[in-house]
Amino acid sequence: MSAQSIVTEQLASSGSQHGHFGGSTLSDYWALTKPEVNFLILITTGVGFYLGCGNEARPLSFVGLFNTLLGTLLVASGTGTFNQYIERKFDAQMRRTARRPAAAGRLKPAVVLVFGIALAGTGSVYLAVAVNPLSSVLAILTLLTYLFAYTPLKRKTPLCVLVGAFPGAMPPLIGWAAASGRLNSEAWTLYAILFLWQFPHFMAIAWMYREDYDRAGYLVFVMLETVLPLLAVAAISMVQFPTRHAAIFYCAGALLGLGFLYFGLKFVLRRSRAAARQLLAASIVYLPLLFALSATLCNRAGK
Fold this sequence. Notes:
Blueprint: H1 3-18, H2 24-32, H3 35-55, H4 62-86, H5 88-91, H6 101-104, H7 109-131, H8 133-153, H9 160-168, H10 171-180, H11 185-208, H12 210-216, H13 227-237, H14 246-270, H15 273-297
């Protein structure tokens, strides 16, 4: 049976079960892509592209930015879909993920797999053709390491969090490579910031849903990986070189870092669900604001 016929059959059967095609079926496919994760991926990819243009003294190409974001979104959506395909049995054991389309059985595994292949394959080719080969290679490397290094280790060692942070920090590199065709120390600084940011962000989630993770057999550290990365990310964010209004950049960056550190310390000391929620919210606010600050004041094109 061809990939197209598999998808068509599933769409038809789902449509008949729900009485119409446009309701829960489309929302299930949308949920497979993990849109809440893709939001931050697009922000960090966009900032990498913007700063990469400025670093090379090139005018910002909105067409290039659109192509980069679209290709990255497709690969990221495919990665999220593959992840739900691989972990569907474990997701079914967790309250947080039991209602996902693959885990709940609303979509057949074969259809989820084909959908992931279509998204990731299209995105990889699109980046290679419409942007440049380096951005495509980085996107494919992200997919492979996330699915075949991080994902299998989640049930074997708590070090999976460290392994998963490597592909998780790739989006700004993809954006930078798309804009300039190469990577330099400033691109790797953005990578380091995102790499370290993931630890407190994930630790908050792991604490809130620790019983779920235990049920599924996932192994994660909760406390030890919070404070040190917070200190490091605050320090590394100050390594960036603003091209104007340096005092504003360093003061604002320091305030953001201190605020993030405050919620991290509060979480470590109190070890409560409320403190974990606050740290999670702080992480979601911190990253876009820091990257917006970098895009505004560290772009050489504005000199």
